[in-house]
From TrEMBL:
Superkingdom of the organism of origin: Bacteria
Protein name as annotated: histidine kinase
Coiled-coil regions listed: none
Catalytic activity: ATP + protein L-histidine = ADP + protein N-phospho-L-histidine
PROSITE patterns: HIS_KIN (PS50109)
GO terms for MF: ATP binding; phosphorelay sensor kinase activity
Membrane spanning residue stretches: 6-30, 158-181
Lineage: Bacteria, Pseudomonadati, Pseudomonadota, Alphaproteobacteria, Rhodobacterales
InterPro entries from the UniProt entry: HATPase_C_sf, HATPase_dom, His_kinase_dom, HisK_dim/P_dom, HisK_dim/P_sf, Sig_transdc_His_kin-like_C
Organism: Wenxinia marina DSM 24838
Length: 466
């Protein structure tokens, strides 16, 4: 509770109210003491009137008058004559004298606190002005015990009343703060948490409703900030998706253009003069296109569209991929083999299937070439009861530890130097789009094997793509 705004406000309210009551209590007790002493002077003056009316009174009556006045003796000064009007034995010496004819506020407070904290019953002399001009001054002697008891009783009643006032005031302020301040702030916090769950959703932007000017200003500032943030997120999301799409297209387009470049290189040996004249220009154009696609591979990911399923002859797709990569291997000692049943067809998107296998075979070829050792790449396909399975196996050096750790993660699972790290990511996404799976079976010094599984059961293409 004390860690909340309303709880701390409640504590501070109690502290401040009690402090105010203390500032009121001390002067009140001092004033009570003055009134108490003045009342004793008045009673003493009234008691002295009996003696003034009759010079001789019974000693018992005199004692009764002194007891009623609460004093031991009364001295009245009239016409410059100081007269002991009433008297009785004083049990102890007089310890202090207080003059109430023109006391200062500080003197009253000081003497009142001194009387309140002194538990000993002392004898004091009080000097004051008689009422109704009944003389020049009047003096009485009295005990401090009854005075202190009366002051304590009055002080306790003041403190009790102060405590009640403090509690009621603090409770009212506590409720008011919760209603007027804490509840609106909590509403803003809940709105911020709700907005944080989906900051791109413009419907979650706060609508200012506060009546308090400061809270309204805070809500207006928050609304402006959330609106700007939502717009920025949408713009960045669109740019990221666009960049990701360009990166993926560029990655596979680069592979296709590289293969085309190898085919065009063969045209330079043609006997046709026109072909020989145009071949260098064509090679230069394709080279520029390859460079352009490579420069766009710094973008992120984007979701692939759902595949257009159809019956695909897997043997033809594998043959196209191997022929392309055989040309890319050139003079490097890389051999290719395939083990695909004749006439095997599967339900897939032919273009996306080509991209999956091209990425896998190209990565295998690049790994073998980078090792400087001869190697073999084998593509196998088989039909099982529930799925079609295609495996790509190589005898290369295996995947680097970082590639294994970040397998299928964009820009992090780079296998060969100069690669983009998108090949396996794209292949995995395309496999998931078919409702299938691309997995790493093994990888080590003896080689690497990837397994592509495409289910035979009918699937929801959009759900699979997502």
């Amino acid at each position: 509770m004390f860690n909340t705004l309303s709880g701390r406000f409640l504590v501070l309210t109690l502290v401040f109210v009690m402090l105010a009551e203390v500032l009121i209590f001390v002067p009140s007790v001092a004033r009570f003491r003055e009134d108490y002493l003045m009342l004793r002077l008045e009673r003493a003056q009234i008691a002295s009137l009996a003696l003034l009316a009759d010079d001789i009174i019974d000693p018992g009556l005199e004692q009764e008058l002194l007891d009623n006045a609460g004093v031991f003796n009364v001295v009245l000064r009239r016409d410059e004559v100081r007269q002991l009007v009433l008297s009785s034995p004083i049990p102890a010496p007089i310890s202090a004298t207080y003059d109430l004819r023109d006391p200062s506020s500080w003197a009253l407070i000081r003497d009142g606190l001194a009387t309140l904290v002194d538990p000993e019953n002392r004898i004091i002399r009080i000097i004051g002005k008689p009422v109704q001009e009944g003389g020049l001054l009047i003096e009485v002697t009295m005990e401090t015990g009854p005075l202190r008891a009366a002051m304590l009783d009055y002080g306790l009643r003041i403190l009790a009343l102060s405590a009640v006032i403090s509690i009621v005031t603090a409770a009212l302020l506590f409720v008011a703060v919760r209603i007027l301040i804490v509840t609106p702030i909590r509403g803003v916090i809940e709105q911020m948490n709700d907005y944080a769950t989906a900051p791109e959703d413009a419907r979650r932007i706060i609508e200012p409703t506060a009546k308090v000017r400061e809270l309204r200003e805070a809500e207006n500032a928050l609304q402006a900030m959330e609106t700007q943030l939502t717009q920025s997120l949408k713009q960045k999301e669109r740019l990221a998706l666009l960049g990701s799409a360009v990166a993926k297209v560029s990655h596979d387009l680069r592979n296709i253009l590289t293969s085309a470049q190898l085919f065009v290189d063969r045209l330079e040996g043609s006997d046709d003069p026109t072909v020989r004249r145009l071949a260098p220009k064509l090679v230069g154009s394709i080279a520029r296109a390859v460079n352009l696609t490579e420069s766009t591979l710094a973008f992120g990911r984007a979701e692939e569209p759902p595949p257009q399923l159809g019956r695909v002859a897997i043997a033809q797709v594998v043959a196209d991929v191997i022929e392309s990569e055989r040309l890319a291997a050139g003079e490097h000692d890389v051999s290719f083999s395939e083990d695909v049943p004749v006439g095997l067809t599967l339900r897939a998107d032919g273009e996306q299937l080509f991209r999956i296998l091209l990425n896998l075979v190209r990565n295998a070829r690049a790994a073998i070439v980078a090792s400087g050792e001869p190697g073999e790449i084998c593509v196998q396909a088989a039909e099982e009861d529930e799925a079609w399975v295609v495996t790509v196996t190589d005898t290369g050096p295996g995947l680097p530890p970082k590639a294994k750790e970040h397998l299928f993660q964009p820009f992090q699972g780079r296998v060969a130097k100069g690669g983009s790290g998108l090949g396996l990511t794209i292949a995995s996404e395309l496999a998931r789009g078919h409702g299938g799976e691309l997995s790493l079976v093994r990888s080590g010094p003896e080689g690497t094997e990837f397994r592509l599984t495409l289910p035979k059961s009918r699937i929801d293409l959009r759900a699979a793509a997502e």
